[in-house]
Amino acid sequence: MLKTPIELYKLYRDRKTAEKIVRRIHDLAKNIGYKIKIMNFCGTHEYTITYYGIRSLMPDNVELVAGPGCPVCIVPAKYIDVCVDLALSGVTVFTYGDMYRVPGSEYSLAEARSQGGKVRVVYGFLDVLKEPESREAVFFGVGFETTQPTVASRIVENSVPDSLKILSAYRLTPPIMRYLLENNVVELHGVIAPGHVSTIIGSSSWEFLSEEFNIPTVVAGFEPIDVLLAILNIIEQISSGKAYLYNEYSRVVKREGNILAKKYVAECFEVCDASWRGIGAVSRSGLSFREKYRKYDAVAEYGLDLTGGLDTRPGCRCSDVILGKAKPTDCPFFMKACTPRHPYGPCMVSSEGTCSIWARYGALLRDSEPE
Ligand code: SF4
């Protein structure tokens, strides 16, 4: 029988269940003679891990590292720069609240607005469509696979006015994980794959991690028990010597994903090489407009140059944090020159940015200490 939200809430936050899973993790991990590094791709998983103190429950040889799963943190500075220029030139720029304060090479959109730039914060693309059609406007399209179908479906269904252009900063998640592993950026023994993204692309999109790279992988939900079960399953896979993909979030995620959403995205966009802030160019990891829908493309309309820009400000370690090579506390600016109120780097702004999460919800003391 289907459970009510309250029942689910209790089930996935149950203390006794959590204690049992943690005991089992300790039992299994003590027989593994090396440090097990597990990457949680998604910023929302990082929130769960940090907010519920899950790192503090882990054995000494299990390390949980955050990955590149903050869609705002990885938008190249030059995209923000061109939006700042557009806003200051009189074009209305619609943006998500998370993007509003992210620093570009020099300015954020919030600073552009304070200088008289036309910047409007919206919750989503459908809010933009409620605006008057006459004005010249650009929607700053940021996000992973979860945000793309809304825009694609409205465009394909011919519900977007010609006066509205879209700057596609959309990025795809499996290619960035492939990039990390093919380039040996970080050694991983397990991956917690993003649950929300997988509702769209399907759990099958992550099979390559176990099949090609022999990495135990679990698609997980976002409650504390979801994350603990994911960690336990990864350690069970390591113990058994056989890596596979496990869908812990089967109450929401299907193997094939959301077929209609994928169809809209494929109709509107084509996959292209794309740049990630702090990482650089990643093969086939972005989306650009297909010829049929190019009239909505802000790049073509305004002749935007998206090359260059200052992605990494001097001293900021966001690129290492995004790649799982450093913790926020490894950065000398963390909670000194860089705070949620006065962010210096992109990872300190968004609710999905690792530095922002660590700053707001605290981090385990031993994680702050030098190795
Ligand atoms: Fe960048 Fe600030 Fe994080 Fe340091 S603390 S890595 S400056 S966002």
CATH fold label of the largest domain: Rossmann fold
Outline? globular
Q: What is the quaternary state of this protein? A: single chain
Elements, N to C (H/E): HHEHEHEHHEHEHEHEHHEHEHEEHHHH
Number of strands: 11
Strand order, sheet with most strands: 2-1-7-8-9
Quick check: average pLDDT?
A: 94
Level-1 CATH class name of the largest domain: Alpha Beta
Largest sheet: 5 strands, parallel
Into which percentage range does the β-strand content fall? 15-25%
Structure in words:
The protein is an alpha/beta fold. It has three domains: 5-70 and 174-247, 3-Layer(aba) Sandwich (Rossmann fold), CATH 3.40.50; 77-172 and 258-302, HypD, alpha/beta domain 2 (Rossmann fold), CATH 3.40.50.11740; 318-362, no CATH class. Helices cover 38% and strands 18% of the residues. It is built from 17 helices and eleven strands. The chain has helices spanning 5-11, 15-29, 43-51, 77-88, 97-100, 109-114, 125-129, 148-156, 173-182, 195-201, 207-213, 224-240, 259-268, 298-302, 318-322, 354-361, 365-368, and strands at residues 36-42, 62-69, 92-96, 119-122, 137-143, 164-170, 190-193, 217-219, 245-247, 269-276, 280-289. The strands form three sheets. It has a five-stranded parallel sheet with strand order 2-1-7-8-9. Strands 4-3-5-6 form a four-stranded parallel sheet. It has a two-stranded antiparallel ribbon with strand order 10-11. Helix 8 (148-156) links the parallel strand 5 (137-143) and strand 6. Helix 2 packs parallel to helix 12, helix 3 (43-51) runs parallel beside helix 16 (354-361) and helix 8 (148-156) crosses helix 13 (259-268). The longest helix has 17 residues, at 224-240. The protein is globular and about 65 Å long. Mean pLDDT is 94; it is low at 364-371. Residues 316-318, 321, 328, 331, 333-334, 338, 344-345, 347-348, 355 line the site of iron/sulfur cluster (SF4).
